[in-house]
Amino acid sequence: MGGVEDDEPASKRMKLACRELKGNPNDSLLSEPSFGSSRDLMARLLQSEEDEVIGSKGVIKKVEFVQIIAKALYSLGYKKSGAHLEEESGIPLHSSAVNMFMHQILDGNWGESVATLHSIGLKDESTVKSASFLILEQKFFELLDGGKVMDALKTLRTEIAHLCASSNQLRELSSNLVSFSHGASVGSSNQVNLRAKSRPKLLQELQELLPPTIMVPERRLEQLVEQALTLQRDACVFHNSLDREISLYTDHQCGRDQIPSRTLQILEAHSDEVWFLNFSHNGKYLASSSNDQSAIIWEVGTNGEVSLKHKLSGHHKPVSSVSWSSDDGKLLTCGVEESVRCWDVSSGECLHVYEKSGPGLVSCGWSPDGKSIFSGVNDRSICMWDLDGKEVENWKGQRTLRISDLEITRDGKQIMSIFKETAILLFDREAKSERVIEEDQTITSFSLSRDNRYLLVNLVGPEIHLWNIDGDINLVAKYKGHKRTRFVIKSCFGGSEQAFVASGSEDSQVYIWHRGSEELIGKLSGHSGSVNCVSWNPVNPHMLASASDDGTIRIWGLNSHLQQHKKLQQVHSNGGSMAAAYNGRT
Amino acid sequence: MGRLFIEDAKGEKVLMCKGCRVDSASYDDIESKEFQGRYGRAYLFRKVVNIVIGSSEPRFLSSGFHVVNDIYCSSCMQLVGWRYEIAKEESQKYKEGMFILEKERMEKKGG
């Protein structure tokens, strides 16, 4: 078996051998299996390109590259191809010592394999010890399974004992002897379970233990490819799809065509400026509110077409915000420094009016269980009501300003509002603790991410700040470019994995940034007045809605959707018996 | 116009826009009362609220050459004064970034 006991240093020996081989590049070695001729292969390897690098940057070592390809071929099951690659390249996957080691393990030559282990070239003594332990443990269990109790005991005492990491380990192994003999003596009819794992499995475990320079790790090539794909995906600022396949043929780069950029619909039912809008949690409805003192519930059809469902009238002041209950069955609307109204979404009926005698209400929000509603008051307090209108709780002191959003976390514990010009209060009503986000300029509005871990804060600048509020509070990103001088302009998260930030702007455009890189990736024109608020459909990453001073709401979608919409219009105007054939997407 | 964002000026005594009675500045932020505006006496402020800043213009004032921006009440868009962007003379540089509010356009509140 191999020449591993030679005194001469291996490299010298190999170089002598290769001088003989030099003249025969295409000899009969090609047809021999890799294990046996690996020594000769090593010779050719050392002669030629041990330090050769490939690739345009010169950082890939050719030997390593070929070896991980060979490894991938073997793990795909292409043994012949793997062997052929080792032959043709002259680059063996494993050194001869390692090949021998692998054979010995699979053949169960335990003693020899441990000896080979010591000459494989491991620098770390503890690795040698751990690997030896694994091998001898296998020997022990195989002996036991074979009924050779005395041999197993001998192995345990003489070979394994000194390798045990702790006395517990030794005790555990010993207990196997006891339970084995018990099982045998009772003469149970049960099948004694084999304790030893399969030898290939042992080899796999040993492989994981040994350093990669000795044995190329399993699936290394797949790992490298996955790393590259992940990096590409993360770098793709337009990535906005739920199920887009990534191909290996070209670098993944979604084009702009994945971001909503075209007006698909203009909704004109409000008679004055539209100040706020928000999609329902299930993405099937959109609620908007206006200076015309009304709110509207819109329905998003299965083909993505939005239509008016209910007009909600009753407020005597402009409606500044709306809030969807968790099950999207009810909607709250807030009249500016007036009252909060609760509406039934399917019937459009006003279920209740919440108000205080004296102070006006300035914001509204649902508790996640749908049993209570919260509201900011213009006396700076925040109160909580039950569905019948009974005031259940009142948090006094400076909790909110007259112009402020109100957000409640999904667990119902934290309530958030702007309580100072430059600060947001996050108070835990259960733990009765408070946290604060301090800004360096005046805050105009904010919104909470769907996972409740981030807050998007709009500042007078104008500037938008992204804060992490999960655990330690810290500023994560800043978004700039949009315009604001006089109005409350709102922004929101959106898109697939909430990877984007969108905002309104006083220059009548919708601004879209890539959340991670802070890069401005879209400016959507169309409105003829300040865009006050935007909302991204939580279920359809390709649908965005905007509310404007021009009295309209625009529904934005992908360029490709626009082409489909146009076709649909054509079909209808042709007296469409084919109308049903268009089975668009949400 | 959209939903106006209106801030409250801090402090006991405050100046409000005469046209719409929205806060413009706090007396706490007065830097000097000795200025002259287009319409008479004017005050120099370190900080103002609810103000929209117009575009930069070169202007020769009694104190020398400056680049200024006219400023307007964000609520009613009335011209209420100006902001010093750049002052040419060294002795005037302290005014850079500060605001002039015309007394004639303002109303006192509190104090």
Automatic annotation (TrEMBL), chain A:
GO cellular component, as recorded: cytoplasm
Subcellular location: Cytoplasm
WD repeats: 267-308, 312-353, 366-388, 524-560
Source species of the chain: Linum tenue
Protein name according to UniProt: CTLH domain-containing protein
Keyword annotations from UniProtKB, A to Z: Cytoplasm, Repeat, WD repeat
SUPFAM superfamilies documented for this protein: WD40 repeat-like
Source taxonomy: Eukaryota, Viridiplantae, Streptophyta, Embryophyta, Tracheophyta
InterPro entries: CTLH_C, LisH, WD40/YVTN_repeat-like_dom_sf, WD40_PAC1, WD40_repeat_CS, WD40_repeat_dom_sf, WD40_rpt, WD_repeat-ST_regulator
Predominant location category: cytoplasm
Pfam families given in the database record: LisH_WDR26 (PF23627), WD40 (PF00400)
PROSITE patterns: CTLH, LISH, WD_REPEATS_1, WD_REPEATS_2, WD_REPEATS_REGION
From TrEMBL, chain B:
Protein name: Protein yippee-like
Domain spans labelled Yippee: 13-110
Pfam families documented for this protein: Yippee-Mis18 (PF03226)
The keyword Transcription is annotated on this UniProt entry: no
Entry keyword set: Metal-binding, Zinc
Residues in coiled coil: none
Keyword hit for Metal-binding: yes
